[in-house]
Each structure stands twice: as C-alpha cells, then as structure tokens.
Specification:
The chain has 260 residues and is mainly alpha-helical. It is built from 14 helices and three strands. It folds into three domains: 65 residues, no CATH class; 96 residues, no CATH class; 61 residues. Helix 12 crosses helix 13.
Length: 260
C-alpha cells in the first residue's frame, strides 16, 4: 500500500512533545497499533505519529478511507475537529485551532460552508492534486466569536486574547505560552509591549513575565484615571476635523461624478 505523508498536513497541527511521543511508542510496542490510520486516497490524514512508529519498528497497522473529503479544506476542518475533541489539547492550542477553522470557513462559498456542517455525499476520495489546485472563493465568515469559543470549549474572551497573541506576540512569547510558563491572559497583556521588551521578559523567566504583565496593567489603569491634558484634547480634535474634512471632500467628489 502506498501512503503519502504531506508536509503541509504534518505541520498543520502542533506535534507531540517528546514525552508524549515516547508514551505513544511504548503503547504501540506493547499493544500494537490499535487505531486505523485515516487516508484520503493515498494521503495520510490522521495517524502521522503512529505511522512513523509502525514504520520504525515494522509493526502492522490498518487504514480506513474517509470518503467525505472533497477538498483540502475539508481535510483541515476534519483534523481541527478531531484535535478539538481530545482532552490533552491545551486551551491555547484550542484557541489557535478554532481561529484556523474560522479562517478556513471565511474563504468558502455558502455551499461549501453547508457541506462543512454535514458529511459530503461523494463516491470516493477526491484526488489530492485536484483539490490542491482548486481556487479559493472569498466569502463571509460563518462562525461568531461565541460559536468559536463554544466549539473550542474556552471563553470568547480567551479567543480574543489568543488572537491578540497571534498578531502581536514575539515567537519567544508564543513559545512561553505553549510551554505553560505564562498564562494566556498575561501573555496577551505582555504582547502589547515592543518585541524587544517581550523577548527580554521571556529571557528573564516566569517572574519577569509576570512583572511585565503587572506593569502593563498598572500603566493602563493610570491612563484610565488620569484626566486628558489640554494638548491631548486639541490633538484628538484636530485628528477628528482632519478625518471629517477628508470624508467631506470624498463625498463632494462622488457627487460631482454623479452630476457630470
């Protein structure tokens, strides 16, 4: 049997830690590969770690075809749902997976979104090459933040914090969240700092990260309680006037075009 390991799918989900991989290897050596590997045609969709261990030790395994997949997006969504159903997935990983699901659904047309909610009616696995070449179709997202949070079994506030971490956090800070050195809440706060300050805080360890988060929160609290200076008020009013002036000019230009 020919099995293809696709690097994109292999990297799509966070890999097992060394300890988790070692535990899985011990289990397979003792009991064999109990769960079938999931394929899409010849492409391995689920069971990459089990497949590698079985290949290493020449252990037999079973496979099963999933005929519901039509496109590569279908494969990604299925993988996400499978991982969200596992108890060992951390809250941060759950949030990342939920946001990936949102991005995938945002790029699908209404018919494809409906298909994502139910098994597809297809006579067999779709060819990998055809799915990979299919053009993406822009569409409106179908999942609200609350729905994403419910699917991931975390709060909508946690989803927002993870989204902020993804957008603003230095790689070192993201790694600290994944390892549990800093909480999601504190990491989202530290992510508002310049990148070099984030990296320095991570290098200082858990206490330094907690201190950085406290300093950011204290600074924001002071900003909320201090009255705005006259200079600040004038600057803000100037920005508002400039924005309104630009909008007015744009409307005049549109009106002139309509009357021409």
């Amino acid at each position: 049997m020919n099995i293809t390991v696709n690097e994109e799918l292999l990297a799509y989900i966070d890999p097992l830690t060394p300890d988790e991989h070692a535990a899985l290897e011990r289990s397979i050596l003792a009991e064999g590969c109990r769960d079938a590997l999931v394929l899409w045609g010849e492409v391995l969709v689920d069971g990459h770690n089990r497949y590698g261990i079985c290949q290493k030790h020449n252990i037999a395994f079973n496979t099963v075809q999933n005929a519901a997949f039509k496109t590569l997006d279908d494969v990604h969504l299925w993988m996400i749902d499978q991982h969200l159903g596992r108890r060992s997935v951390s809250d941060f990983q759950r949030g990342v997976l939920a946001l990936r699901k949102k991005d995938i659904l945002a790029g699908r047309d209404p018919a494809a979104k409906a298909d994502a909610a139910a098994p597809a009616d297809t006579s067999g696995p779709a060819p990998w090459e055809e799915a990979a070449a299919a053009p993406a179709v822009a569409a409106e997202p179908t999942l609200t933040r609350e729905a994403l949070a419910k699917a991931a079994r975390i709060s909508s506030n946690t989803i927002s914090q993870i989204e902020k971490i993804q957008k603003s956090a230095a790689p070192e800070l993201v790694a600290a969240v994944k390892s549990g050195t800093i909480s999601i809440n504190a990491a989202a706060t530290v992510a508002s700092l310049p990148v070099d300050e984030q990296v320095a805080a991570v290098a200082g360890g858990k206490k330094e990260l907690q201190q950085a988060a406290r300093q950011v929160r204290n600074a924001k609290a002071v900003e909320r309680t201090e009255p705005e200076s006259p200079e600040g008020i004038i600057a803000r009013l100037k920005q508002t006037v400039a924005a309104l002036t630009a909008e007015n000019a744009a409307l005049k230009a549109q009106l002139a075009e309509m009357m021409a």
